[in-house]
Design brief:
The protein has about 170 residues and is mainly beta. Helices cover about 10% and strands about 40% of the residues. It has two helices and eleven strands; from the N terminus they run αββββββββαβββ. It has helices at about 1-15, 135-140; strands spanning about 50-55, 65-70, 75-85, 90-95, 100, 105-110, 115-120, 125-130, 145-150, 155-160, 165. The termini are far apart.
């Protein structure tokens, strides 16, 4: 039911994202030996997987680090040193797109697909852990390449963290 609701929400978002600008995805870069490119990160791939990125501000000052940890039994987003702007309808979402400068110079998300994880806890600051249903993670239709702080009331991204796979220790 939750996956169905998320899918319906994603469909609704695709049709109503007037505040986000679509930009064609950049061609895949050749990855460094031993370091896969973000597009090679399969959602159903062997686990454990750790993806990490620094937030880039868009419509509100957004700072901190987003890390996604996936194991055979769990998946979660960890926000560290995190802060973002206030607003109603601010949610944590995942996207197969990445943020980069568009033709006008403003940061744009390269995909209009957004997979909602839920509202940010009150305060929206410091360190937070948001659990992801492991079945939801396995059912992702595309690789996750960014964590987005999205304000549904304003239909705009506050900030986005492009993700890269980090080695496990």
């Amino acid at each position: 039911m939750k996956l169905l609701r998320s899918t319906l929400l994603a469909s609704l978002l695709v049709s109503s994202l007037a505040g986000c600008t679509y930009a064609e995805p950049a061609p895949d870069k050749v990855s460094e030996p031993g370091r896969p490119s973000p597009t090679s990160i399969a959602t159903g791939a062997a686990v454990p997987v750790t993806l990490q990125g620094q937030f880039q501000s868009q419509r509100a000052t957004t700072t901190g680090t987003a890390t996604i940890h996936v194991t055979e039994s769990s998946a979660f987003v960890q926000l560290e040193d995190f802060a973002t702007g206030p607003g109603d309808g601010v949610r944590l979402v995942l996207s197969p797109g990445t943020v980069r400068p568009g033709p006008s110079g403003e940061l744009e998300l390269s995909s209009s697909t957004l997979i909602e994880l839920g509202p940010l806890p009150l305060g929206r600051s410091s360190s937070q852990r948001i659990d992801i249903d492991p079945r939801m993670w396995e059912a992702m239709p595309e690789p996750v390449r960014s964590v987005v702080i999205y304000n549904f009331a304003e239909k705009t991204a506050y900030g986005t963290a492009n993700l890269v796979e980090t080695p496990h220790s």
